[in-house]
């Protein structure tokens, strides 16, 4: 254990400070495709019974119209967050008419690209902007990619905890700057070690063969309908997932917030020749918001993002620049097809342990070839993480992935113990033990279990996924919500529809002017 980490854990372990560890916030965003009972993509509109995808706080859509996204409120304890997620599933399953929620991250068999509906958000100016943004994504990356699902895990440390560390270590630094600096340090360590999360929780080693649309690939044939890689952990996070030639040189430096925001600002304000050639309109219809490297900040694809809740009309870059980092969003988590909600408490507790370790441990600046090594290690594990004696790169030297993983498990142990003391449980240590067992035996990982189940049952990826989806549907439908929570969800659905109607009624001006003003808002930000 580093001296810095040891000192910080001792400080936080003092009776007067221990409660700070349970005052952070957790939130989960879970995506899932709506599919028909035969496992094909649902081509229906977003169900009215779920409310408005534009204005509902808990139930929306992401890219494709069929890609639901469930958003939990934030809670101090991950168990509370998972309870919220469970309730959303139970409500939605009470409203779906003959449809299922697809269990894994990689999509079901898809229709032709032209037949995949893009998310629609009504006729308001902001609703049309969200739709055109998704049209731009379809133009740039294809609609097939807009059907991939994942889990985003939002995590924050108590601001009082940061204030305590600031007082002890750098009392003269501005509080906002200190907090942002600590979160950037967390992100650097996450980049160093997130390959471990892909090994432990990657759950997409196979996919339906039509996902590739006949394009060249290096995958192997599992059966007539399924492609896979024998040692892969997460094809979702591999080169087969969201990729962008325009973003190849974008990977921002996480050595400070300003350089990150500078990279992002450049991307949203710099034209990219192929997009310029396509233009923003075709036959008078908008096809993308602009011709820049990315249309808006959210188009930058990364495994983790610094975040700040934006005010009405405020761009994400503006929020971060003016008020600093508030929390981080982990975006590389696959949906576990064996779990009804796609994630469970053991996984959440390990993520908390891992992220707190990244936040509290020393975090040298990334320089020379560090960024490339981080990316290479991550890609190696997503493509061949269960390969015997897989070697990664650490500080310019080769190291066996399992050796490095076991070293990290040892370093995570005191963090897990401290979290258990704060919560009065042994859940973090138990989770750590379960993850350590996966390092010892790759067959315990979700990715290995998926392939083993498919082999045992003689199933294609689609058949396995449909069977899991049906089992999860039975699980949620067999546990209908109590009257109180049900009424709350019903009210949220009604109110969201009323809010969308009111937004559309109050709109003034034309869409072209609205888009121009939206673009001007980013160009006006000083870098």
From TrEMBL:
One of its GO terms (molecular function) is metal ion binding. It catalyses: L-cysteine + L-glutamate + ATP = gamma-L-glutamyl-L-cysteine + ADP + phosphate + H(+). Keywords: ATP-binding, Glutathione biosynthesis, Ligase, Nucleotide-binding. It comes from the Bacteria. Residues 11-380 form the Glutamate--cysteine ligase domain. GO terms for cellular component: cytosol. Its EC number is 6.3.2.2. Pathway: Sulfur metabolism; glutathione biosynthesis; glutathione from L-cysteine and L-glutamate: step 1/2. It is an enzyme of class 6 (ligase). GO terms for biological process: glutathione biosynthetic process. Belongs to the glutamate--cysteine ligase type 1 family. Type 1 subfamily. This is Glutamate--cysteine ligase.
